[in-house]
């Protein structure tokens, strides 16, 4: 509802509420007129004859509109009381159209009224996010970032003393430059602005904001993750002590997210009639601590994935059979006896990178990203990889479709990383077996050897088999 429209309706509406006039409205998302009529009232200002106001407490009182007070003076043939009644009528009309009370009265309140300030509405939104965390719908990490943005002198402090209805493209662009002056990267600025956009979207959905202006989004260079070749990834995995290797196998061979791998429990494993293990991905840890809450996955969906044979063998050796019936954590850090933390995963992975003689890359890139790229380069259909990684949008999967030039890689990094050429301390006494076709039968290659070393590329194309009798 624009100010121009409000002014037009205020002085051009042919019937006032007391005369029984009605304007045709779509009330499908608003309250009934009978309910709307109970909100607000026109009263005489105390001690002032022929001076009126619209009482819309707890939001305050409205004494004028567009600088014209509701007094005894006639304006365009209407008395002060009639103009006040028209304002109240338009507020009630907004309620029947789906606007909240705060939004319905905001255009009529004085510009400096605190209900119109960004800083008044922002704590309410943060409280909603806090309740979402408590109910498991949001990550505590996300809430901590929002609270940091909103603290005094935080990145949201630009909006102190700014009215909601003053927000426009120009102010948002100024804010983006203000954030840049704080030496923030384009990616960080985009994340901060995205959080503020979510806040405005929430207000709009509640009917407290008519619309969201265009955002001056920073240009973020496309991120190019570091992708490990299959041989290099295998060498790094082989450098991880075998009793610690399970969670890394899950991330590197199934492409599960770190939070999902940390949340796996023994009862998430099931076996079909052929003895193939299936792993249910239905939850994730939402935080960095050992005792972080376990909630749903990032996408909110559950998937049941075939367990690679090397991971199945690791489970059979390192997870006692009695524990598999108790529903305890599937992957425990042997150093602490508790679930893995992100810092412990990162430290162990980087030590393995050093031992394998490859540059340090993040576990996310060296495991999940590299897994996805390998599958696509091996010829696995894009939709199969998308299903395995549980991407909502195929474009998220497409970014992994980078053809690794193995010849160029070998020319730049000619070191043979096969197990036979690895240092003695990096060799596993129980070599991991790579299952090339995902069936758990045949075509198995010792971990650390690239399939291309033995077979033609055409013979190594494989896909994750469709699950029989199980939902996605």
Account of the 3D structure:
This protein has helices at 3-12, 33-36, 80-96, 101-106, 118-134, 140-150, 169-181, 186-205, 230-239, 246-254, 258-263, 309-318, 342-356, 363-377, 382-389, 394-398, 406-412, 457-460, and strands at 41-44, 52-55, 61-62, 64-65, 68-69, 269-271, 277-281, 284-285, 294-295, 303-306, 433-435, 444-446. Helix 1 (3-12) crosses helix 3 (80-96), helix 10 (246-254) runs antiparallel to helix 12 (309-318) and helix 10 crosses helix 14. 40% of the residues lie in helices and 8% in strands. It has 18 helices and twelve strands. It has three domains: 3-109, no CATH class; 117-205; 230-460, Intergrase catalytic core (hpI Integrase, Chain A), CATH 1.10.443.10. A hairpin with a 5-residue loop joins strand 6 and strand 7 (277-281). With 472 residues, the chain is mostly helical. The model is unreliable at 1-29 and 403-472 (pLDDT under 50).
């Amino acid at each position: 509802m624009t100010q121009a429209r409000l002014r037009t309706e205020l002085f051009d509406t042919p019937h006032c509420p007391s005369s029984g006039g009605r304007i045709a409205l779509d009330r499908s998302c608003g309250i009934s007129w009978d309910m709307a009529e109970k909100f607000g009232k026109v009263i005489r200002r105390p001690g002032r004859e022929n001076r009126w106001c619209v009482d819309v407490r707890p939001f305050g009182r409205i004494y004028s509109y567009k600088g014209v007070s509701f007094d005894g003076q006639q304006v365009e043939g209407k008395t002060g009381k009639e103009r006040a009644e028209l304002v109240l009528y338009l507020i009630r009309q907004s309620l029947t159209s789906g606007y909240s009370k705060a939004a319905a009265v905001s255009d009529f309140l004085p510009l400096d009224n605190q209900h119109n300030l960004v800083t008044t509405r922002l704590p309410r939104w943060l409280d909603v996010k806090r309740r979402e965390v408590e109910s498991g719908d949001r990550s505590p990490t996300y809430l901590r970032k929002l609270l940091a943005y909103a603290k005094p002198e935080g990145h949201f402090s630009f909006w102190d003393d700014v009215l909601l209805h003053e927000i426009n493209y120009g102010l948002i662009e100024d804010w983006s430059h203000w954030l840049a002056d704080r030496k923030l990267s384009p990616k960080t600025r985009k994340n901060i602005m995205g959080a503020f956009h979510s806040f405005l979207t929430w207000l709009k959905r509640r009917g407290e904001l008519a619309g969201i202006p265009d955002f001056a989004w920073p240009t973020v260079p496309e991120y190019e993750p570091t992708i490990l070749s299959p041989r290099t990834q295998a060498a790094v995995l082989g450098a991880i002590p075998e009793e610690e290797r399970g969670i890394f196998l899950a991330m590197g061979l199934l492409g599960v997210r770190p939070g999902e791998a940390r949340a796996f429990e023994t009862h998430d494993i099931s076996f079909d009639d052929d003895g193939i293990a299936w792993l249910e991905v239905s939850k994730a840890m939402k935080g960095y601590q050992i005792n972080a809450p376990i909630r749903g996955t990032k996408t909110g969906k559950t998937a049941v994935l075939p367990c690679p044979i090397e991971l199945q063998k690791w489970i059979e050796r390192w997870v006692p059979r009695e524990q598999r019936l108790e529903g305890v954590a599937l992957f425990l850090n042997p150093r602490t006896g508790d679930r893995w933390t992100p810092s412990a995963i990162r430290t162990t992975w980087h030590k393995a990178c050093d031992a394998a003689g490859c540059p340090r890359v993040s576990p996310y890139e060296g495991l999940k990203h590299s897994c996805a790229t390998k599958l696509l380069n091996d010829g696995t259909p894009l939709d199969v990889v998308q299903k395995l990684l549980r991407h909502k949008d195929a474009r998220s999967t497409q970014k992994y479709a980078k053809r690794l030039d193995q010849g160029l890689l070998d020319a730049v990094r000619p070191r043979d990383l096969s197990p036979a050429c690895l240092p003695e301390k990096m060799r596993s006494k129980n070599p991991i077996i790579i299952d090339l076709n995902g069936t758990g039968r045949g075509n198995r290659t010792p971990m650390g050897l690239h399939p291309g070393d033995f077979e033609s590329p055409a013979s190594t194309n494989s896909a994750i088999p469709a699950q029989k009798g199980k939902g996605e």
